Amino acid sequence: MQDFQLTITLIIILFALILLGLSYLFFQLGFSNMKKKWIRRSKDIKTVDYSIFKTFEPWLFQQKPQDLWITSRDNLKLHAYYLPCDKAPKALVILHHGYTSQGKNMAIFAKLYRDNMDVDILSLDMRAHGQSAGRYLGFGYLEKEDTRQWIQTMKEIRGHTLPVILHGISLGGSTVLSLAGHDCPDDVKIVISDSGFSNLNQQFKRQFKEIFHLPSFPLISLGSVWCKTILGFSFEDASPIQNAAQITVPTLIIHGLKDMFVPYLMSNDLYQALKCKKQLIQYENAVHALTYPLNQEDYKTQVLSFINENLYEEKPH
What we know:
Layout: H1 2-31, H2 52-55, H3 57-62, E1 66-71, E2 77-83, E3 91-96, H4 107-116, E4 119-125, H5 143-158, E5 164-169, H6 171-180, E6 188-194, H7 200-212, H8 219-231, E7 251-256, H9 265-273, E8 278-283, H10 291-294, H11 296-310
Parallel strand pairs: 3-4, 3-5, 5-6, 6-7, 7-8
Antiparallel strand pairs: 1-2, 2-4
Helix pairs in contact: 1-8, 5-6
């Protein structure tokens, strides 16, 4: 009988160790700076062509952007491309790229602003992306503090305050919402979130099934524990919807109705949770993160209209 109980105990311990090991591997795959070719296994983006983002990079470097650097609160060297306006700028636009992307891939958005507004433009390499250091990314939770520092740095560089427009796509879209919902700097006047996730647990559950074909429970819950232990926050903490009701800045939510990588229903959830002045735009033809490339004229019109209507509106106290 004792031998049987010992065997059962050993099996339980072995099973627990396997689960811990698998959940740690999942955490490393999702959060570390290792290459993520495996993400293309998801049927949600397997056949999607994102090459258009690279086609605008030559334009960016023709503008001779300045390379700016800051040191994050956790001592990481972070990089951004800075395009100062030739005229007196009316605002500072800070662009936030998506998962596995980098600041130069946001050139298509930089050109949108450069062609239509007198603004300074800062396109970030978010931590663990591009030229920025970092062993781990933070799915918006850590990056929101990096953006806070960039806002302060730009104020020091220019010697005065400019109204700030935060524009992010995918992971960047969630990042700008996270900052807006956590003691948002007064300088921020507009938030534009394109194709961002609302709930990180739900985001992982879908892609865990699509990419790894494994049950999400308890691996995602354990992955959140690893995240809390190593990075200091849980998946729930990094879910923008948790603090959406605290956002007071006018917020524009954009999503594609063919997006299943970050399911478009998340944009509905975010819109419903927001209590600030808000607008929701959904494009019937757009898969994940291609809202602007596939709808350039309407996207430009909608974004510029939202900015012009709300840029100088005071935040309620």
